[in-house]
Design a protein that fits this description.
Largest sheet: 2 strands, antiparallel
Number of strands: 2
CATH architecture of the largest domain: Orthogonal Bundle
CATH topology of the largest domain: MetI-like fold
Order of helices and strands: HEEHHHHHHHHHHHH
Strand content: under 5%
Shape: globular
CATH superfamily of the largest domain: MetI-like
Length: 300
């Protein structure tokens, strides 16, 4: 009995060498500007270092301090609250906008462009505009609320409203990116399915939840992951709008890392906080990745 033999594909070493040469610059860039800084930061997280004196090894005391520091705990709670409010609202509104802009209406290109502009706008410029909009005395928001007899709200100086103001701006800025992703997914939904559902007597709401949502679930999964990561890393809006105030009401982890590491020069503590944030994001991402099989189309 003669055993069948399989010919292994021959390796074209010339092509392989050129492949390695072409990816080498990118690999060196990642190694020099990503891997080395991350490894260095992890080492720094076990030290007490102020950029002036030599680092002093302190073991895990920086990590222990995070969970015994009232400000750090408040910052973590603020960040979770900010994330789990802003992300669902942003995803829901983005989906609604995408469905509306997927219709045949006049000025469609203008509206698509207009909603995407905030994504590419300077954070500083956006913050300056919303500082005026949320101004307690002359802001556009209070002027609008005044039409309904609502008293002026101190959006940026009242601890009860400051986080809401930051969430509103964050949602406004993120709408365009998520909307474009959803719009591309909606345009890939076969028209035949809409027609077949209509023949079966399905209404628009039934088609939306039973056809559209399942088919665009990969896009929803993608925006969910990217939005969660982006929200946990938020820094620039808080820095430019509230500086973490009032009364630390808008302290987010990203801002607290900057404050500890670069304002107070507690480099070890700042690095430790950044790795706690990293592992929190990693765990949430892994959980979402595992659960995707239950609801993402094509991942069953």
């Amino acid at each position: 009995m003669i055993a069948a033999t399989r010919n292994k594909p021959r390796v074209n070493w010339r092509e392989a060498i050129w492949g390695y040469i072409l990816i080498a610059p990118g690999f060196l860039f990642v190694f020099a500007f990503v891997l080395i800084p991350v490894i260095s930061a992890f080492g720094i997280s076990f030290t007490n270092w102020n950029l002036i004196n030599a680092p002093k090894f302190v073991g895990i005391s920086n990590y222990v301090k995070i969970f015994t520091d009232a400000v750090a705990v408040k910052t973590l709670l603020n960040t979770f609250y900010f994330t789990f409010v802003s992300v669902p609202v942003s995803l829901a509104l983005s989906l609604v906008l995408a469905v509306l802009l997927n219709q045949k209406i006049r000025g469609l290109t203008f509206f698509r462009t207009a909603y995407y502009i905030p994504v590419i706008s300077s954070t500083v410029a956006v913050a300056m505009v919303f500082l005026w909009i949320f101004d307690s005395n002359y802001g556009l928001m209070n002027q609008f609320l005044g039409l309904f007899g609502i008293s002026p709200i101190k959006w940026l100086t009242d601890p009860h409203y400051a986080m809401l103001a930051v969430i509103i701006v964050t949602v406004w800025r993120s709408l365009g990116f998520n909307m474009i992703i959803y719009l591309a997914a909606l345009q890939d939904v076969p028209k035949d399915l809409h027609d077949a559902a209509a023949i079966d007597g399905a209404g628009e709401v039934q088609k939306f939840f039973n056809i559209i949502i399942p088919l665009i679930s990969p896009a929803i999964f993608f925006t969910l992951i990217t939005s969660l990561i982006s929200s946990f890393q938020s820094f620039d809006l808080v820095y430019n709008m509230t500086n973490g105030g009032p009364a630390r009401a808008t302290y987010l982890v990203g801002y607290y890392i900057w404050e500890q590491a670069f304002k107070y020069l507690h480099m070890g503590y700042g690095a430790a906080i950044s790795f706690v944030l990293f592992f929190a994001i990693l765990i949430l991402t892994i959980v979402q990745w595992v659960l995707r099989r239950r609801w993402v189309y094509g991942e069953e």
